[in-house]
């Protein structure tokens, strides 16, 4: 009981004009929508942040949210390529020249020393030793003193030849370790010398040999850089496994986490600020569109709140999809997200043009949550647009299922299109077929959810959707059955008014279904006292003839308040109640005013005392019902309803309503009123058409019997 009373209080507040039209509340709704959407979606937009240490066990499976370069693996590959680059050397001819000069100087000195007759042996050794290359042994010097000048000259030529042969070709530092063997091989292969001579030449040549290949550090570094530059980057692709659940965090894992941007001690505030700006801009543009809509399609605060709830609902579904995608390690699950649900709900509860605008937002939010993937932006936009247009005209709940199948078909087309647009179709057939299957399932899920969620909005906010209207139009509704059983004339009158109102609404762009169903319920209050209304009087006896005109006025006008009370008790939506409250506006009961005036001897009767309490119609649907109710009653009371007379009566009724100011608060134009007359005439021809006069059957039978 407490919750029922509490819910009724909230419903009354939401229906109150002070809530529906308050500009401050409107601003609060926009701000609250932005804050709530940011709070819900920011976690799915921001990449997850982990702070691990080497050796720690990962509590979750982590996959790469983006495609990027694996810096550690790439660096290792570059270093390996650099290691394969040989050192760069340049051959120096100066080394060979210097070596030959040393050999020539040494042997020339030896020849002079040996030729001298006056120089003692010790001085000869000292002189020869001073000119000898570093490394020439004492035994070589002594052996050389025993040779003749001619032999020394021969040894010089042989040594020069060996030096030229060895240093004329690349001679590396590593070759120095085998210098003795190289010289021996030259002596044995190319020279015919005795053992003593070979030892002298070998010792001298080995002493002057030096590497002639000079290391080029700069050239080596350039070669390494060129080799490293040719190594392709090692990539981490979106969806690649970084570390599995319970896996060990190694240095390479830590590096990969840093590369994909999920390793940090603090969240990425730059992305958060950017997304906040994205939400603010989106809500601002949405508000600009909503506020600039024509007055006929303007959303009051209640409908704006419902629009916000749909955005929140879709944000929650997007976040759940992102969570499932992260858990499963693949974004394929996003293809089954019923992204068209939001557009379907907005179309049914509001209109398709607003749903088209909302489709942009839903698709961009989906793409943003999935690493700003354009494929999902396109996919979500196609699904949302198709969903919006598929339920533009709801005639039954089966419309949702047909829309679901159509959405599924277009989703499959979108997936195939995106697959064909890929220049590098790396996904295998299994993934492609999975995407098609999930896309086909998408529309069916959206339709089922739309049918399940819509009654919640209808009940919680008293919304009057096409589905709800179709349910209310069922003749088995308790209120309609009550009218049929207790006031059959009123029931028939309501049916005809419904036909007139539906035809007029279609031609002026109002809601035909609301007009028809509103007409069915507009006179339910007459069931309180059905005999006081002429359409329910089966005899010529009129109870109003026995009571005062003021009392008749009270009884007649009370059917409006009685009807409102019955509708509220039955839980009928506010638009239906508004039609009931305004279908007479503040018009005057001229019949009873005239009757009271005839009985009044003091002249105290005022015309305003015989008005309906109102209020006046504020919507096109309410105004159409007012006119249709008066037209049906007037035409029904005509003795000979010819087309010209009927049209004249209709124009007079409309003119009277205009002159009395009954249509001042609604947005029906004079052009609308004029085209409505044609719709009335067409409908009334089918109801009050002329009939032939049938002969008296009994009289004819008697004449035939004679």
Automatic annotation (TrEMBL):
Pfam families in alphabetical order: 7TM-7TMR_HD, 7TMR-HDED, HD
Residues annotated as domain HD/PDEase: 486-643
CDD domains: HDc (cd00077)
Transmembrane segments: 27-46, 269-290, 302-325, 337-364, 400-421, 433-457
Keywords from the named record: Membrane, Transmembrane, Transmembrane helix
Record-given protein name: HDIG domain-containing protein
Species: Alicyclobacillus fastidiosus
Lineage, highest ranks first: Bacteria, Bacillati, Bacillota, Bacilli, Bacillales
């Amino acid at each position: 009981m407490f919750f029922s009373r509490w819910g009724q209080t909230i419903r009354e507040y939401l229906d109150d004009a002070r809530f529906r039209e308050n500009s401050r509340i409107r601003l609060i709704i926009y701000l609250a929508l932005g804050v709530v959407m940011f709070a819900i979606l920011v976690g799915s937009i921001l990449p997850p942040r982990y702070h691990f240490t080497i050796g720690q066990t990962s509590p979750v499976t982590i996959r790469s949210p983006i495609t990027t370069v694996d810096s550690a693996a790439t660096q290792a590959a570059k270093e390996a390529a650099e290691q394969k680059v040989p050192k760069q050397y340049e051959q120096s001819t100066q080394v060979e020249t210097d070596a030959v000069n040393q050999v020539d100087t040494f042997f020339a000195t030896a020849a002079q020393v040996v030729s001298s007759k006056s120089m003692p042996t010790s001085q000869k050794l000292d002189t020869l030793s001073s000119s000898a290359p570093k490394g020439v042994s004492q035994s070589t010097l002594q052996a050389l003193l025993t040779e003749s000048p001619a032999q020394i000259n021969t040894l010089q030529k042989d040594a020069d030849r060996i030096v030229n042969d060895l240093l004329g070709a690349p001679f590396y530092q590593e070759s120095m370790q085998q210098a003795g063997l190289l010289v021996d091989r030259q002596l044995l292969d190319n020279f015919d010398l005795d053992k003593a001579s070979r030892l002298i030449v070998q010792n001298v040549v080995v002493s002057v040999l030096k590497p002639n290949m000079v290391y080029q550090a700069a050239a080596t570094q350039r070669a390494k850089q060129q080799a490293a530059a040719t190594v392709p980057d090692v990539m981490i692709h979106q969806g690649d496994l970084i570390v599995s659940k319970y896996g060990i965090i190694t240095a390479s894992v830590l590096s990969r986490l840093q590369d994909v941007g999920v390793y940090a001690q603090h969240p990425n505030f730059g992305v958060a600020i950017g997304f906040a700006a994205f939400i603010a801009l989106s809500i601002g543009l949405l508000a600009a569109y909503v506020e600039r809509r024509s007055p006929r399609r303007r959303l009051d605060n209640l409908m704006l709140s419902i629009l916000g709830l749909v955005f929140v609902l879709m944000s929650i579904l997007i976040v759940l999809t992102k969570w499932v995608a992260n858990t499963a390690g693949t974004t394929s699950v996003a293809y089954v997200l019923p992204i068209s649900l939001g557009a379907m709900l907005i179309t049914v509860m509001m209109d398709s043009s607003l749903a088209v605008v909302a489709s942009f937002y839903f698709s961009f939010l989906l793409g943003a949550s999935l690493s700003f993937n354009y494929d999902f932006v396109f996919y979500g936009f196609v699904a949302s647009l198709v969903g919006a247009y598929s339920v533009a005209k709801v005639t039954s709940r089966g419309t949702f299922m047909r829309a679901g199948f159509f959405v599924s078909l277009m989703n499959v087309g979108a997936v195939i299109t995106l697959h064909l647009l890929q220049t590098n179709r790396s996904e295998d057939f299994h993934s492609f077929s999975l995407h098609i299957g999930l896309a086909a399932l998408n529309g069916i899920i959206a339709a089922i959810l739309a049918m399940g969620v819509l009654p919640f909005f209808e009940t919680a906010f008293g919304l009057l959707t096409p589905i709800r209207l179709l349910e209310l139009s069922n003749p088995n509704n308790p209120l309609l059955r009550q009218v049929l059983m207790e006031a059959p004339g009123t029931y028939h009158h309501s049916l005809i008014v419904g036909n007139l109102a539906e035809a007029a609404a279609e031609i002026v762009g109002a809601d035909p279904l609301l007009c028809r169903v509103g007409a069915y319920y507009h006179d339910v209050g007459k069931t309180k006292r059905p005999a006081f209304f002429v359409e329910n009087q089966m005899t010529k006896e009129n109870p109003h003839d026995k009571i005062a005109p003021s009392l008749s006025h009270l009884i007649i006008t009370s059917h409006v308040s009685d009807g409102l009370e019955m509708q509220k008790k039955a839980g009928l939506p506010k638009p239906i109640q508004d039609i009931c409250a305004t279908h007479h506006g503040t018009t005057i009961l001229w019949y009873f005013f005239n009757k009271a005036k005839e009985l009044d001897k003091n002249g105290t009767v005022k015309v305003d005392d015989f008005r309906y309490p109102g209020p006046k119609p504020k919507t096109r649907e309410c105004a159409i019902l007012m006119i249709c109710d008066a037209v049906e009653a007037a035409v029904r009371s005509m003795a000979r309803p010819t087309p010209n007379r009927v049209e004249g009566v209709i124009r007079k009724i409309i003119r009277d309503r205009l002159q009395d100011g009954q249509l001042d608060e609604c947005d029906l134009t004079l052009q609308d009123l004029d085209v409505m007359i044609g719709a009335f005439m067409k409908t009334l021809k089918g109801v009050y058409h002329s009939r032939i006069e049938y002969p008296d059957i009994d009289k004819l039978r008697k004449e035939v019997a004679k």
